[in-house]
Amino acid sequence: MSYKSLFEIQFFHHYFLDHGQAVFDAQNPLVNNVGYNVKQFLEIIPLPKTQLLFKNHRYLFKKTSLGISILTKTIEETVNRNVREKPLITPSSKDKAVFAIRVTDPMFYNYTDVTELNELQLYHFSNDALGAEGNIFDNSGANDVDNNYLLNESDSRDLLENIAPQETGASAFDVETALDLLSEDTSIPDLAVAKHTFLSGEVKRRRRQGIIGYIVLNFSNNQVGNRILEYDSKGPRYLTGNTLSFQLTFQSKKTFWRYQMLKKGNTYALETQSQKQFSLNGYTDIDSEVDLDASNQLPQNDPDAPTANELSTFVFPSPNPKVLKYENNKIYSEIYITI
Fold first, then answer.
1. Which end of the chain has a smaller Cβ tally under 10 Å, C or N?
2. Where in the sequence is the domain holding 183, given as residue range(s)?
3. Residues 240 and 309 placed together within one structural domain of the fold
4. Residue 137 and residue 149: Cα distance in Å, rounded?
5. Which residues are paired to 133 by β-bridges?
6. Do 127 and 32 lie in a common domain?
7. How far is residue 322's CA from residue 106's CA, in Å, rounded to a whole number?
8. Structurally, how many domains does the chain consist of?
């Protein structure tokens, strides 16, 4: 009997893993990034019913630098003369593992491309479609965290209602209990409006706690690329033989970089012609003509203005994402330079 990987969930982030213009290798993300750790910006939290499922089935919840890994005690079984491995305690096809994704870094939204996310919306990642809510993500490679997984406000409320049983026990007054009380209250003139208001408030509350979405992995799915265990006639049973890795990738935020160049008491502004991506490490090359079009942005008849020759050899630094400016439907990052 030994412990084997049941599945893992990994998070990549271009801001931490890229080196300037050099994009990280998703197959070997920690090459040149040995210090990378998901806990720098978020945590993955199993909901109470999922914690109970893991405890009862003797699954181990392990945090890793890339995310989490779920391990199970296994035993061998001979099937048609082939030795197969299965969990010591196999789950039911009705079982699911649900995790909250909580942002822990207040600066996360400054360097991450989640501009469409508002306080009434949640991301939903699942290996199985839940009605019309979100797209299925699989273990065939990294899945970009984008609008394909971002629910609208109505579906965000539905998601919260659907996972409410998984949160039962988290507090004395959980969502499932509250919805039951609302349904039983005959004094409420419009139950649908009351549920709408309550669930909207609950989505807001979670967003204030840093929760941006949920991962829902169903053991009921037996499709290759989405399943956690292979089925036999009784349901989910055997390990697939490969480490199942559900991977999600955050893109870095892109902004227009505006250089405020101070020379002889005057300030000259140069901004990039296109948006540039943040990265914590490395260097992004900025060409004064190709990226900044300096010849057209600088005043032509000002003898004190920086010259093309000066700028052609100038090394333009990359900005820090701490301060963003929103002007005319554009997002700017400003860098002040004395020359």
1. N
2. 2-250
3. no
4. 9
5. 130
6. yes
7. 10
8. 2
